[in-house]
Amino acid sequence: VPFQAGVSQPLQMEQLFSAPAAQYLLPILEEAPSGEPPDPKKCSPRQYLEFYIFPVLLPGLAALLHEADKEKCFEGKRTKFIPSDFLTEWLYNKNPKRKDESFTELFSIPFVKDWLKDHPRPPVPLSLLLSEEEASTLIQSFWRGYRVRCDSEIQELRQWQKKLREERHITEVVKKFWTKQEAK
């Protein structure tokens, strides 16, 4: 079988990341093993995989590895990159039946929209969305704010403001003000 020749040799990690995707010993998209295509309903599972599944899936997995490397997934424990999302989008857009159609983002794919209506995702944690520089700036600004609020003069000012709000019933004054404004 022609497909076995490209897969039977184990790939080393150095080989995976040293060359561009075009140089891999993987079948090209839409390139099926030579010969007559077997009937998908009557062929063996091996023939079905080799003729219909692997020619599309393996280049997608190679693209997935490149994207994961680009997103630095192999450097840390946590990442915002979701491999199943990438592979879903890639396979949908590389589908031979969609050859002449434009690129579709993951959340615009019809079956993904339907799935997410019934199974909404939790929001991505802020720690995964921020770069290290943005996170350090945010942490530093909170720390500076905390240090300023600890200053005795600032504490005194905050106590005075709190006392003033309580004595003058500021919330009631604000409510009355807005009711007058709305009445005009």
UniProtKB/TrEMBL annotation:
Name the UniProt record assigns to this protein: IQCK protein
Organism superkingdom: Eukaryota
InterPro entries, sorted: IQ_motif_EF-hand-BS (IPR000048), IQCK (IPR043408)
Gene3D superfamilies, sorted: cAMP-dependent protein kinase regulatory subunit, dimerization-anchoring domain (1.20.890.10)
